[in-house]
Description:
- By secondary structure, this protein is an alpha/beta fold.
- It contains twelve helices and 16 strands.
- The chain is 35% helix and 20% strand.
- 46% of the residues are buried.
- Residues 102-342 form the Radical SAM core domain.
Amino acid sequence: xxxxxxxxxxxxxxxxxxxxxxxxxxxxxxxxxxxxxxxxxxxxxxxxxxxxxxxxxxxxxxxxxxxxxxxxxxxxxxxxxxxxxxxxxxxxxxxxxxxxxxxxxxxxxxxxxxxxxxxxxxxxxxxxxxxxxxxxxxxxxxxxxxxxxxxxxxxxxxxxxxxxxxxxxxxxxxxxxxxxxxxxxxxxxxxxxxxxxxxxxxxxxxxxxxxxxxxxxxxxxxxxxxxxxxxxxxxxxxxxxxxxxxxxxxxxxxxxxxxxxxxxxxxxxxxxxxxxxxxxxxxxxxxxxxxxxxxxxxxxxxxxxxxxxxxxxxxxxxxxxxxxxxxxxxxxxxxxxxxxxxxxxxxxxxxxxxxxxxxxxxxxxxxxxxxxxxxxxxxxxx
Length: 382
Ligand code: SAH
Ligand code: SF4
């Protein structure tokens, strides 16, 4: 049997890890900064293009290292400027990344897992079940790919991406180490230099990991609330049975006070017709959140096939918003963007246009993932 060296993927290494890497191969630590700038600021994956690195070191790096992002399966641009990438990760699954331009702001919505184990009843990603955790390189790789596609070189001068939200596919706190490493790179000046206020992690409420997060990083936090009481939340967000509302809100408050500066928690609330969109729910929500500095983001349900849910009418949405407004909350309604390319937030059904067949037919990523499972099984048995 021949043994081949597995190359170290430098894309997902934080500055500290990169310095350790150069230490380990007997090189000076300052090489870390040089190489990181090439990778993240200039989108370079070819060591030969790193012209301030000596030829000898470049040759050495080519043998032992690589800069490898996830494979781009498709890139679509909506008429409203929204962009969506489908990328294939090492497990063979596909995940989605969405870019939403809004005035001077450009928000990139990044995935953390292929599928999700938490099975929220209205979420298309949850319906796929869990497939795999993304590596740190696959998480930051989505930012790297998006940034390159804007041709903004260097990334920190001409910023197309001003904000990143971990609101794509998956529960970021269940892929903790890789997501934290990638978020460090988003904020690092040698990475993407995005302010900590503009990097947001969204969670459905994995309480112990919210507490853990505070020990590692100080990004902004969004909580997927979706219901104002435990009985309803147990149905919509099953992890609530393990970590009920009181416990959850306390952990969010601990996190917010760990930040050492005044910042408010974002509350996400997907509005589902006749389920959680009544005035009485808004009233209950006012009571629940009265002592928590927060802003509320209402997300009208984005439908997908066989979901069993509907989006409330515009009147019902406005009524709900008004109720919260009148109680003094800052409430926004998330507008649906990129509908023509299936990029609406929370609607990451994971559909991939099957370009090879040149038809309008879409294949659900779920099917692709099932295929790759089959392929994997086949490979294992061969
Ligand atoms: N797993 C994390 C982050 C990803 S989901 C979380 O749950 O917070 C990003 C947001 O979209 C969450 O608030 C999620 O509940 C919401 N969402 C999921 N499916 C949706 C749908 N079909 N319509 C509207 N919002 C949805
Ligand atoms: Fe997972 Fe978030 Fe979807 Fe719930 S809403 S199933 S936590 S991705």
